[in-house]
Specification:
The protein is of the alpha+beta class. It contains six helices and 20 strands.
Length: about 325
Protein backbone atom coordinates (compact mmCIF):
# COMPACT_ATOMS: atom_id res chain seq x y z
CA UNK A 1 0.00 0.00 0.00
CA UNK A 2 1.48 3.34 -1.06
CA UNK A 3 -0.50 5.33 1.50
CA UNK A 4 -2.20 3.58 4.40
CA UNK A 5 -4.12 6.76 5.18
CA UNK A 6 -6.47 6.12 2.26
CA UNK A 7 -6.79 2.37 2.80
CA UNK A 8 -10.56 2.59 3.36
CA UNK A 9 -11.24 4.18 -0.04
CA UNK A 10 -11.66 2.64 -3.49
CA UNK A 11 -10.72 4.21 -6.82
CA UNK A 12 -12.17 2.34 -9.79
CA UNK A 13 -11.36 3.08 -13.43
CA UNK A 14 -13.86 2.08 -16.13
CA UNK A 15 -15.68 -0.17 -13.67
CA UNK A 16 -12.89 -2.76 -13.57
CA UNK A 17 -9.43 -1.41 -12.64
CA UNK A 18 -8.78 -0.81 -8.94
CA UNK A 19 -6.23 1.98 -8.45
CA UNK A 20 -6.22 2.75 -4.72
CA UNK A 21 -2.93 0.90 -4.12
CA UNK A 22 -1.24 3.54 -6.28
CA UNK A 23 -3.03 6.58 -4.87
CA UNK A 24 -1.13 8.99 -2.62
CA UNK A 25 -3.90 11.56 -2.10
CA UNK A 26 -7.53 12.28 -2.99
CA UNK A 27 -9.16 15.69 -2.74
CA UNK A 28 -12.85 16.40 -3.45
CA UNK A 29 -14.14 19.94 -4.00
CA UNK A 30 -17.68 21.29 -4.26
CA UNK A 31 -18.73 24.94 -4.55
CA UNK A 32 -21.94 26.89 -5.11
CA UNK A 33 -20.33 28.77 -8.00
CA UNK A 34 -19.49 25.54 -9.86
CA UNK A 35 -21.97 22.95 -11.10
CA UNK A 36 -19.69 19.90 -11.02
CA UNK A 37 -18.27 18.07 -8.01
CA UNK A 38 -14.52 17.66 -8.64
CA UNK A 39 -11.87 15.15 -7.60
CA UNK A 40 -8.11 15.59 -7.78
CA UNK A 41 -6.18 12.35 -7.45
CA UNK A 42 -2.42 11.81 -7.23
CA UNK A 43 -1.06 8.41 -8.28
CA UNK A 44 2.34 6.76 -8.46
CA UNK A 45 3.05 5.54 -12.00
CA UNK A 46 4.13 1.90 -12.09
CA UNK A 47 3.94 -0.91 -14.64
CA UNK A 48 0.68 -2.04 -13.04
CA UNK A 49 -1.06 1.29 -13.64
CA UNK A 50 -3.48 0.96 -16.58
CA UNK A 51 -3.54 3.69 -19.18
CA UNK A 52 -5.59 6.66 -17.96
CA UNK A 53 -6.82 9.27 -20.40
CA UNK A 54 -9.55 11.95 -20.60
CA UNK A 55 -13.02 10.59 -21.24
CA UNK A 56 -12.70 7.48 -19.11
CA UNK A 57 -15.09 6.82 -16.22
CA UNK A 58 -13.66 6.95 -12.71
CA UNK A 59 -15.44 6.29 -9.42
CA UNK A 60 -14.38 7.05 -5.84
CA UNK A 61 -15.94 5.08 -3.01
CA UNK A 62 -15.57 5.50 0.73
CA UNK A 63 -17.25 4.80 4.02
CA UNK A 64 -20.06 7.34 4.20
CA UNK A 65 -20.07 9.58 7.25
CA UNK A 66 -23.87 9.27 7.21
CA UNK A 67 -24.53 5.54 6.74
CA UNK A 68 -21.13 4.09 7.80
CA UNK A 69 -21.36 1.91 4.68
CA UNK A 70 -19.14 1.87 1.60
CA UNK A 71 -20.80 4.21 -0.89
CA UNK A 72 -19.94 6.17 -4.02
CA UNK A 73 -18.65 9.62 -3.06
CA UNK A 74 -18.08 10.77 -6.65
CA UNK A 75 -18.52 9.18 -10.05
CA UNK A 76 -17.48 11.09 -13.10
CA UNK A 77 -15.28 11.42 -16.15
CA UNK A 78 -11.51 11.87 -16.32
CA UNK A 79 -11.04 15.41 -17.60
CA UNK A 80 -7.33 16.22 -17.17
CA UNK A 81 -4.19 14.10 -16.78
CA UNK A 82 -0.83 15.64 -15.92
CA UNK A 83 2.32 13.59 -15.33
CA UNK A 84 5.65 14.64 -13.90
CA UNK A 85 8.87 12.89 -12.99
CA UNK A 86 10.79 14.04 -9.95
CA UNK A 87 12.65 10.83 -9.29
CA UNK A 88 9.32 9.04 -8.93
CA UNK A 89 6.88 9.41 -11.79
CA UNK A 90 3.51 10.73 -10.65
CA UNK A 91 0.19 11.30 -12.37
CA UNK A 92 -2.31 13.98 -11.38
CA UNK A 93 -5.86 13.20 -12.52
CA UNK A 94 -8.83 15.59 -12.40
CA UNK A 95 -12.31 14.05 -12.47
CA UNK A 96 -15.60 15.92 -12.90
CA UNK A 97 -19.15 14.76 -12.46
CA UNK A 98 -21.13 14.58 -15.70
CA UNK A 99 -22.71 17.96 -14.96
CA UNK A 100 -19.39 19.40 -16.20
CA UNK A 101 -20.72 18.90 -19.73
CA UNK A 102 -23.52 21.37 -18.94
CA UNK A 103 -20.92 23.99 -18.03
CA UNK A 104 -18.85 23.45 -21.17
CA UNK A 105 -21.56 22.95 -23.79
CA UNK A 106 -23.42 25.77 -25.51
CA UNK A 107 -26.81 25.71 -27.17
CA UNK A 108 -29.91 27.80 -27.83
CA UNK A 109 -33.24 27.34 -26.03
CA UNK A 110 -36.53 29.17 -26.29
CA UNK A 111 -38.85 28.40 -23.38
CA UNK A 112 -42.45 29.59 -23.13
CA UNK A 113 -43.63 31.51 -20.09
CA UNK A 114 -45.16 29.43 -17.31
CA UNK A 115 -42.60 26.63 -17.12
CA UNK A 116 -40.77 25.94 -13.88
CA UNK A 117 -37.02 25.52 -13.35
CA UNK A 118 -37.67 21.82 -12.68
CA UNK A 119 -39.31 21.37 -16.08
CA UNK A 120 -36.48 23.17 -17.84
CA UNK A 121 -33.81 21.15 -16.02
CA UNK A 122 -35.55 17.98 -17.17
CA UNK A 123 -35.27 19.21 -20.77
CA UNK A 124 -31.55 20.02 -20.40
CA UNK A 125 -30.82 16.62 -18.86
CA UNK A 126 -32.68 14.68 -21.55
CA UNK A 127 -30.96 16.61 -24.35
CA UNK A 128 -27.52 16.04 -22.83
CA UNK A 129 -28.10 12.39 -21.90
CA UNK A 130 -27.76 12.84 -18.14
CA UNK A 131 -29.87 10.39 -16.15
CA UNK A 132 -32.46 12.04 -13.94
CA UNK A 133 -33.33 11.22 -10.37
CA UNK A 134 -36.39 12.56 -8.62
CA UNK A 135 -36.76 16.27 -9.34
CA UNK A 136 -38.40 18.39 -6.67
CA UNK A 137 -41.04 20.76 -7.97
CA UNK A 138 -39.73 24.32 -7.81
CA UNK A 139 -43.38 25.40 -8.33
CA UNK A 140 -42.66 28.98 -9.45
CA UNK A 141 -43.68 29.70 -13.07
CA UNK A 142 -40.98 31.59 -14.94
CA UNK A 143 -41.13 34.27 -17.58
CA UNK A 144 -40.34 33.40 -21.17
CA UNK A 145 -36.76 32.22 -21.50
CA UNK A 146 -34.82 33.28 -24.58
CA UNK A 147 -31.34 31.76 -24.29
CA UNK A 148 -29.07 32.20 -27.29
CA UNK A 149 -25.56 30.79 -27.73
CA UNK A 150 -24.62 30.35 -24.10
CA UNK A 151 -23.57 27.47 -21.91
CA UNK A 152 -26.30 25.29 -20.42
CA UNK A 153 -25.11 25.96 -16.88
CA UNK A 154 -25.72 29.72 -17.28
CA UNK A 155 -29.28 28.94 -18.43
CA UNK A 156 -29.85 26.75 -15.37
CA UNK A 157 -28.58 29.54 -13.13
CA UNK A 158 -30.94 32.05 -14.71
CA UNK A 159 -33.85 29.66 -14.16
CA UNK A 160 -32.92 29.19 -10.50
CA UNK A 161 -32.33 32.91 -9.93
CA UNK A 162 -35.73 33.62 -11.47
CA UNK A 163 -37.31 31.06 -9.15
CA UNK A 164 -35.92 32.82 -6.08
CA UNK A 165 -36.71 36.32 -7.37
CA UNK A 166 -40.35 35.33 -7.85
CA UNK A 167 -40.91 33.99 -4.35
CA UNK A 168 -39.42 30.50 -4.58
CA UNK A 169 -36.59 28.78 -2.72
CA UNK A 170 -32.90 28.42 -3.51
CA UNK A 171 -31.97 25.28 -5.43
CA UNK A 172 -28.90 23.82 -7.09
CA UNK A 173 -28.34 20.85 -9.41
CA UNK A 174 -26.63 17.93 -7.70
CA UNK A 175 -25.70 14.39 -8.67
CA UNK A 176 -27.05 11.83 -6.21
CA UNK A 177 -26.60 8.09 -6.78
CA UNK A 178 -25.25 9.00 -10.25
CA UNK A 179 -28.51 10.75 -11.17
CA UNK A 180 -29.20 14.46 -11.61
CA UNK A 181 -31.47 16.01 -9.01
CA UNK A 182 -32.42 19.44 -7.72
CA UNK A 183 -31.38 20.08 -4.15
CA UNK A 184 -33.04 22.78 -2.07
CA UNK A 185 -30.31 24.76 -0.32
CA UNK A 186 -30.11 23.94 3.39
CA UNK A 187 -32.63 21.08 3.24
CA UNK A 188 -30.29 18.29 4.38
CA UNK A 189 -31.54 16.28 7.36
CA UNK A 190 -30.11 15.97 9.85
CA UNK A 191 -28.21 19.26 9.77
CA UNK A 192 -24.48 18.60 10.14
CA UNK A 193 -23.13 19.55 13.56
CA UNK A 194 -19.61 20.94 14.05
CA UNK A 195 -18.06 20.62 17.50
CA UNK A 196 -15.59 23.30 18.57
CA UNK A 197 -14.10 21.00 21.20
CA UNK A 198 -13.80 17.74 19.29
CA UNK A 199 -13.57 18.04 15.53
CA UNK A 200 -12.61 21.65 14.71
CA UNK A 201 -8.94 22.42 14.05
CA UNK A 202 -9.25 26.06 13.08
CA UNK A 203 -12.02 28.66 12.68
CA UNK A 204 -11.62 32.11 11.17
CA UNK A 205 -14.20 34.83 10.60
CA UNK A 206 -14.20 37.73 8.15
CA UNK A 207 -16.58 40.67 8.28
CA UNK A 208 -16.54 43.36 5.62
CA UNK A 209 -18.54 46.26 4.22
CA UNK A 210 -17.72 44.98 0.73
CA UNK A 211 -21.07 44.06 -0.77
CA UNK A 212 -23.09 45.99 1.80
CA UNK A 213 -26.06 48.01 0.46
CA UNK A 214 -27.72 50.56 2.74
CA UNK A 215 -29.77 52.53 0.20
CA UNK A 216 -31.52 51.46 -2.99
CA UNK A 217 -33.02 53.73 -5.64
CA UNK A 218 -35.44 52.16 -8.10
CA UNK A 219 -35.76 53.95 -11.43
CA UNK A 220 -38.49 53.74 -14.01
CA UNK A 221 -38.14 53.71 -17.76
CA UNK A 222 -36.07 56.62 -19.08
CA UNK A 223 -37.41 58.90 -21.81
CA UNK A 224 -35.16 60.62 -24.37
CA UNK A 225 -32.75 63.05 -22.69
CA UNK A 226 -34.63 63.30 -19.39
CA UNK A 227 -33.58 61.70 -16.14
CA UNK A 228 -35.29 58.45 -15.28
CA UNK A 229 -38.26 58.80 -12.91
CA UNK A 230 -37.65 57.60 -9.34
CA UNK A 231 -40.16 54.93 -8.31
CA UNK A 232 -38.83 54.34 -4.81
CA UNK A 233 -35.92 54.94 -2.45
CA UNK A 234 -35.48 52.49 0.41
CA UNK A 235 -32.96 52.87 3.21
CA UNK A 236 -31.34 50.31 5.46
CA UNK A 237 -28.68 50.67 8.16
CA UNK A 238 -27.32 54.03 7.01
CA UNK A 239 -26.67 55.33 10.52
CA UNK A 240 -24.59 52.26 11.30
CA UNK A 241 -22.63 51.78 8.06
CA UNK A 242 -23.01 54.98 6.03
CA UNK A 243 -24.64 55.39 2.64
CA UNK A 244 -23.78 52.77 0.04
CA UNK A 245 -26.35 53.12 -2.73
CA UNK A 246 -27.29 50.80 -5.58
CA UNK A 247 -29.58 51.51 -8.52
CA UNK A 248 -32.25 49.17 -9.88
CA UNK A 249 -33.74 49.83 -13.30
CA UNK A 250 -36.05 46.98 -14.28
CA UNK A 251 -38.68 47.37 -16.98
CA UNK A 252 -40.89 44.81 -15.25
CA UNK A 253 -41.18 47.03 -12.16
CA UNK A 254 -43.91 49.58 -12.88
CA UNK A 255 -45.58 50.34 -9.53
CA UNK A 256 -44.35 51.96 -6.33
CA UNK A 257 -45.25 48.88 -4.29
CA UNK A 258 -43.25 46.59 -6.58
CA UNK A 259 -40.34 49.04 -6.55
CA UNK A 260 -40.27 49.15 -2.75
CA UNK A 261 -40.34 45.36 -2.56
CA UNK A 262 -37.49 45.08 -5.06
CA UNK A 263 -35.43 47.63 -3.15
CA UNK A 264 -35.99 45.89 0.17
CA UNK A 265 -34.64 42.68 -1.32
CA UNK A 266 -31.34 44.34 -2.21
CA UNK A 267 -30.70 46.03 1.16
CA UNK A 268 -28.00 44.19 3.10
CA UNK A 269 -25.76 44.58 6.12
CA UNK A 270 -22.13 43.58 6.44
CA UNK A 271 -20.92 40.43 4.74
CA UNK A 272 -19.81 37.79 7.21
CA UNK A 273 -17.95 34.65 6.13
CA UNK A 274 -16.55 31.84 8.24
CA UNK A 275 -13.77 29.46 7.23
CA UNK A 276 -13.44 26.16 9.08
CA UNK A 277 -10.74 23.49 9.05
CA UNK A 278 -11.90 20.33 10.78
CA UNK A 279 -11.99 16.55 10.85
CA UNK A 280 -13.58 15.32 7.62
CA UNK A 281 -17.26 14.56 7.21
CA UNK A 282 -17.03 13.18 3.68
CA UNK A 283 -20.71 13.54 2.79
CA UNK A 284 -20.95 17.32 3.27
CA UNK A 285 -21.67 19.12 0.00
CA UNK A 286 -21.96 22.75 -1.05
CA UNK A 287 -25.46 23.96 -0.22
CA UNK A 288 -25.77 21.87 2.93
CA UNK A 289 -26.70 23.48 6.24
CA UNK A 290 -24.39 23.16 9.24
CA UNK A 291 -24.52 24.29 12.85
CA UNK A 292 -21.99 24.62 15.64
CA UNK A 293 -22.78 22.41 18.59
CA UNK A 294 -22.10 25.31 20.92
CA UNK A 295 -24.51 27.61 18.98
CA UNK A 296 -27.28 25.27 17.72
CA UNK A 297 -29.59 28.15 16.80
CA UNK A 298 -27.04 29.59 14.33
CA UNK A 299 -27.50 27.83 10.97
CA UNK A 300 -25.05 28.48 8.15
CA UNK A 301 -24.81 27.32 4.55
CA UNK A 302 -21.74 25.63 3.07
CA UNK A 303 -20.66 27.75 0.09
CA UNK A 304 -17.64 25.57 -0.66
CA UNK A 305 -16.06 22.44 0.76
CA UNK A 306 -12.80 20.64 0.13
CA UNK A 307 -12.39 17.11 1.45
CA UNK A 308 -8.89 15.71 1.92
CA UNK A 309 -9.77 12.05 2.16
CA UNK A 310 -7.93 9.94 4.68
CA UNK A 311 -8.05 8.48 8.18
CA UNK A 312 -9.57 10.57 9.65
CA UNK A 313 -9.05 13.11 6.84
CA UNK A 314 -9.64 16.85 6.92
CA UNK A 315 -12.07 19.25 5.31
CA UNK A 316 -12.06 22.96 4.66
CA UNK A 317 -15.43 24.71 4.73
CA UNK A 318 -16.51 28.18 3.72
CA UNK A 319 -19.76 29.16 5.43
CA UNK A 320 -22.20 32.04 5.04
CA UNK A 321 -25.70 33.00 6.10
CA UNK A 322 -28.67 32.16 3.91
CA UNK A 323 -29.17 35.86 3.10
CA UNK A 324 -25.54 36.17 2.03
CA UNK A 325 -25.88 33.11 -0.22
CA UNK A 326 -28.95 34.67 -1.87
CA UNK A 327 -27.04 37.85 -2.67
CA UNK A 328 -23.72 36.31 -3.70
CA UNK A 329 -24.84 33.32 -5.74
CA UNK A 330 -28.39 34.14 -6.83
CA UNK A 331 -28.20 37.91 -7.37
CA UNK A 332 -31.19 38.23 -5.07
CA UNK A 333 -32.66 41.73 -5.26
CA UNK A 334 -30.80 42.71 -8.43
CA UNK A 335 -32.81 40.81 -11.04
Amino acid sequence: MINEQIANFQVILNGTHRLEDLVTSISLRDSLDEIAYTANIKLIVTESLPGISPGQVLEIKGVSADTKQMETLLSGVVWDCHSNNRGVKELDVTVYELTKYLACSEDEYLFPAGQTASQRLRKYAVDWDIELGELVDTKVPLAQGVYRSQCIYSMILEDLKGTLANGGEMYRPRINDQKLELFRIGSNLPVYMLDLDNNLLDVSQKRTLEGTVTQVKVLGKSRDDKKSPVLAIEQGEIEKYGTIQKIIQDSSVTTTAAAKDKAQQMLSGIEENITVNCIDINTIRAGDAVRFKEFPQWELIVTSVQHELGIPGQMFLELASSDSVKRRFYDYGSL
